[in-house]
Design brief:
The structure holds 2 protein chains of 2 kinds.
Chain A: H1 5-23, H2 29-55, E1 61-63, E2 74-76, H3 78-103, H4 111-130, H5 134-152, H6 158-186, H7 194-203, H8 208-224, H9 233-239, H10 242-267, H11 273-296, H12 300-327, H13 331-366, H14 377-380, H15 382-395, H16 402-416, H17 423-455, H18 474-490, H19 494-500, E3 513-515, E4 518-520, H20 522-543, E5 549-552, H21 569-572, H22 574-579, H23 581-584, E6 587-594, E7 603-610, H24 614-635, H25 642-660
Antiparallel strand pairs in A: 1-2, 3-4, 6-7
Chain B: H1 2-32, H2 42-52, E1 55-58, H3 63-82, H4 97-117, H5 121-152, H6 157-161, H7 174-187, H8 206-210, H9 215-238, H10 250-277, H11 286-306
Helix pairs in contact in B: 1-2, 1-9, 1-10, 2-9, 3-4, 3-9, 4-5, 5-7, 5-11, 7-9, 7-11, 9-10
Classes of the chains: A mainly alpha, B mainly alpha.
């Protein structure tokens, strides 16, 4: 058996390639299925490879060409294995989901190219993780970016193309920044691998390190949706097919985090207090803006995308705090918060992928992404809605589900390190604590809105009474069910997972999480909560007659109530919009047009609300106008006069010579 | 074994006393407003009568609607079992303030689901308001509890509320205590956040979500809210003068039970006095209430470090 282990990684990568080739066979469904089967196999092998690394982390895994003089290009260490496992797991479940899901969209999408692109996308992410030098890293990064660009346009609507172009620009600015940072660090030797780069970074000139840190932060931050570089994310993620959205939100953002951690932990020398505060500041800003827009947005998938931005913000906050702790010599705080960040990253990959897979079924049932047209699905699909309920509560970081324990470790370590000696540390920790708590509260609002408005009450679109809505096929239910089960089990098994990712500082035994003086047994908490609900259920059976009930129409004040009178998503989030109007600056207008000149009360009214993004309106659009204005000015030299052009060439030549000599 | 006996004693006592709390608040309120008022124990008969009545279940609801009463009452039972109310180390030793805040939110979330499921505008309005309040109260609760935890030197609920730490022994906690009062008022849907005595659509929050419920389910939800109010009053009392019993001895238990009873009487009188002397806030002015609570809790936290 041990003979095969070194080849697992190679086999996994090859099967991804084969999956892409199989997809290109043709439009017949058999090629579609084959492609998904190969992708799932590749994922399973990838999971096996990661588990092998978990079991023997010291050795790791290398893919090398025997007797070659080259150092191995691909390898997997423990840190990479965590992320490789996530990529593999999510791609297996997305492949299982895609088999029935894409069948219902075979006229919308061009399946062969879509499946091939998904395979390329997964391959790109795999390469990024297993690469041991900047060169393969950037190749994987580009494959991932370009494949996901084409995936965003896959429904070929004008809206998707706009979103994809924005994405393309942002992601390439980011890629350019990362490349520039690598080049700066390498100081000429581009084929150096990461270990050589680490040595070079130690001897680099003083100005190189802060500049390359800034470039890395922008590059990885723009990929992971850090505010204010996030504007592409809520447009691009929802435009892709839902299983691709799951891959993008659940895994691709994690790849950006992986890259950022890889360079800050392994490449750059320990970053100082200032740099960690910069990360922290970006993280808090991202979390706050992400969650506010998640609470407000009226589009199902955009809400999920904003919630991803919020979660990424929290992860960056945790990373910022842990680096801050490291720079202040608080070793325990660094270790616990850092492993809490990795734990929360794992949890986010699970619940967000699950929620995006759910969005596929929901959007297909309502033929719309707007929450204003949804409602009433839990009556038709009870099991599905129960899965959704668990995933939504988990995403809101409520106990007893997995993500809660990530936040628990974070909050507990903040609380345990308020010291009486250092007011500066106290102030930073308190600020982080307060904003993270606020974000946590609003995240509950966003997730409740998402679940309640799509699943409960009655369908808000009168033409679509859900009579003929397509039920989720077994493959879709399987994938969603596995994600649901995993967030449920991530709770009790949180200590085990923490031990696996080497967060031993927080795990005294296999069922106990402990931070400072606080300890918790997640499994006991889960059982205790269930036992309470069960006890109430039994008591109610004993105390009152169960059959004693009657079905009747709802309370309606004597006049029939219909779906158009229900609370809508706009109305539901109105209080949040009002309470935070100073930050959000949403635009609301009611236009009143009198119908009769004689009576002003008889008028036609139209309501208009714009949930605009202030980063777009006050940041990117003015910047764009500035550049367009600048290029209009530059255009003036294009006079059409050939002598003037000759003069320009001559001037350019002189200038070049002046600089070169 | 003793832990189990203690838990059962605490559970029975709080479950028995909680309808009385609601009754007392109503009775004091009536007296303060010049009315005769129904006797405090009428709540018991009212709950039992509701429990025996027939359900009327709306034709438009799903499984969520039926699950909500169990979840909400279950979370209330969780609070009673895990907090140091009668015994200073009652409940699970590992329940800390983050779990407490999480379970409180979980209860609100399920209540919101129940309010929305029937699809009436009333339920939606109540649900939207309740969710806003719950989302904004949670950070305040977390920060306030944390200030207590810093003073107690431990985040365990038993150490914070059960070990006789009071506002008088730690004066730095006075702002945090005030913030906790604001949290308790908002969590329990009392004045100035909500009016528990109304069924007018403009003013109600909590009642609007219960509108579709009848029979045993209504009894369960009302019972859950009375338990929550009782638990909060006892916790606040613990921070002022009452000490939960440390041992399973009859005198100590008797003393602690008397403490709980006196807390409930004084607390419900204070609540009735408050509700008779101020007006309910307009919902969109709650922004000010929440901001005051947030910054009060934050300054309470800072005060803990300064003093």
């Amino acid at each position: 058996m041990s003979f095969f282990i070194p080849y697992l990684l190679f086999a996994s990568l090859s099967l991804t390639v084969i999956s892409g080739i199989a997809a290109l066979g043709g439009r017949a469904m058999i090629f579609h299925k084959l492609s998904q089967i190969f992708l799932a196999l590749s994922g399973l092998l990838g999971m096996a490879a990661s588990v092998a690394v978990f079991l023997s982390p010291e050795i790791g895994m290398r893919v090398s060409i025997a007797s070659a003089k080259f150092s191995p290009v691909f390898g997997l260490d423990l840190f990479g294995a965590v992320f490789f496992f996530l990529v593999s797991l999510v791609s297996v479940l997305c492949a299982v989901y895609a088999v029935p899901y894409l069948r219902s969209y075979r006229t919308t999408y061009h399946l062969p190219s879509l499946n091939a692109l998904v395979a390329a996308f997964v391959l790109g992410m795999q390469i990024v993780i297993v690469s041991t030098g900047p060169f393969p890293f950037m190749i994987g990064w580009e494959i991932m970016s370009l494949a996901s660009f084409f995936l965003v346009v896959s429904d070929r609507s004008a809206e998707s193309v706009r979103a994809a172009l924005l994405y393309l620009v942002m992601t390439h600015l980011g890629a350019a920044a990362i490349l520039a940072a690598f080049l700066l660090l390498a100081q000429g030797s581009f084929f150096a691998d990461f270990s050589l780069l680490t040595n070079l970074a130690g001897t680099a000139p003083a100005w190189v390190l802060p500049v390359s840190f800034g470039l890395f932060l922008f590059g990885f931050g723009s990929k992971s949706g850090l505010v204010p570089f996030h504007v592409w994310l809520p447009e691009a993620h929802p435009a892709a097919p839902s299983h691709v959205s799951a891959l993008m939100s659940g895994v691709m953002l994690k790849i950006a985090i992986y890259g950022f951690l890889r360079v800050t932990l392994f490449l750059l020398p320990p970053i100082g207090t200032t740099a960690s505060l910069v990360i922290l500041g970006f993280g808090l800003l991202t979390a706050l803006y992400g969650v506010l827009y998640a609470a407000l947005d009226r589009d199902f998938k955009r809400t999920l995308a904003f919630s991803s931005i919020e979660n990424i913000g929290l992860i960056f906050t945790m990373i910022g705090i842990s680096f801050f702790a490291a720079s202040r010599g608080l070793e325990v705080l660094f270790e616990v918060v850092f492993s809490a960040a990795v734990f929360f990253t794992i949890a986010h990959a699970l619940f967000k992928s699950g929620l995006f897979l759910i969005s596929g079924v929901v959007v297909r049932a309502f033929h719309s992404r707007s929450l204003e047209k949804m409602g009433g699905l839990s009556k038709r699909l009870p099991v599905f809605s129960a899965f959704f309920c668990i995933l939504a509560l988990a995403a809101a970081s409520l106990p007893p589900f997995g993500p809660f324990f990530g936040e628990w470790m974070f909050f507990q370590s903040l609380l345990g390190h308020f010291s009486l000696h250092d007011p500066f540390v106290n102030a930073i920790l308190l600020l982080t604590f307060a904003i993270s708590a606020l974000v946590g509260g609003l995240a509950i609002f966003a997730m409740v809105k998402l679940f309640a408005l799509s699943m409960l009450a009655e369908s808000r679109s009168p033409e679509n009474a859900l009579e003929h809505c397509e039920r989720p096929a077994w493959g879709e239910m399987f994938s969603i069910g596995v994600f649901t089960l995993s967030v449920l089990l991530l709770g009790p098994f949180a200590p085990a997972v923490m031990a696996l990712i080497r967060g031993e500082a927080a795990v005294p035994s296999l069922w106990l999480l402990s931070v400072g003086s606080a300890a918790i047994q997640p499994s006991v908490l889960l059982l205790f909560l269930f036992a309470c609900v069960l006890a109430v259920w039994i008591l109610r059976r004993l105390m009152s007659r169960v059959e004693h009930e009657r079905a009747y129409h709802r309370w309606d004040c004597g006049a029939p109530v219909n779906a158009s009178m229900e609370y809508t998503a706009t109305a539901f989030s109105a209080p949040i919009r009002f309470f935070f109007r100073l930050i959000l600056r949403t635009k609301k207008s009611v236009d009143v047009l009198p119908v009769l000149a004689t009576n002003p009360w008889i008028a036609s009214k139209s309501f208009n609300m714009n949930l605009r993004s202030i980063w777009m309106d006050f940041g990117y659009l003015p910047l764009g106008r500035f550049f367009i204005g600048l290029s209009l000015q530059v255009k003036k030299i294009q006079s059409g006069n050939i002598r003037f052009y000759l003069f320009l060439i001559f001037a350019a030549l002189i200038l070049t010579l002046r600089i070169a000599l | 074994m003793t832990t189990i006996v203690a838990l059962i004693l605490q559970l029975v006592l709080v479950l028995l006393l909680s309808p009385l709390t609601i009754g007392l608040v109503r009775w004091f309120k009536a007296r303060l407003q010049g009315r005769l008022g129904a006797p405090p124990w009428i709540v018991y008969t009212a709950l039992l009568t509701t429990l025996k009545k027939q359900h009327v279940i709306s034709e438009n609801v799903s499984w969520v609607f039926r699950f909500v009463p169990f979840a909400v009452l279950g979370m209330a039972a969780f609070l009673v079992l895990s907090l140091p109310l009668l015994f200073s180390n009652g409940g699970l030793p590992q329940i800390d303030l983050f779990i407490l805040a999480g379970v409180l939110s979980l209860g609100s979330v399920f209540l919101v689901f129940g309010g929305l499921d029937a699809g009436t505008a009333f339920g939606g309005m109540g649900a939207s308001r309740e969710m806003t309040i719950a989302a904004l109260v949670e950070p305040v609760a977390l920060i306030t509890f944390s200030a207590f935890a810093v003073v107690a030197g431990s985040s365990s609920i038993q150490d914070v509320f059960g070990n006789g730490m009071s506002v008088f022994s730690h004066p730095a906690l006075v702002l945090s205590f005030a913030a906790l009062v604001l949290v308790a008022l908002a969590e329990n849907a009392r004045y100035p956040v909500d009016n528990p005595a109304t069924h007018l659509e403009l003013t109600m929050v909590h009642e609007a979500m219960l509108l579709e419920y009848s029979g045993p389910y209504l009894a369960m939800l009302e019972y859950a809210s009375s338990i929550k109010l009782t638990v909060f009053l006892v916790l606040l009392g613990n921070l002022i003068w009452v000490k939960p019993s440390a041992a399973l001895a009859p005198e100590a238990i008797g003393l602690a039970a008397a403490g709980i009873l006196s807390t409930l009487i004084v607390g419900s009188f204070a609540l009735a006095l408050l509700e008779s002397s101020i007006a309910k806030m307009r919902f969109f002015r709650l922004q000010e209430y929440m901001s005051v609570a947030f910054f009060l809790s934050l300054s309470g936290f800072i005060l803990v470090f300064l003093l």
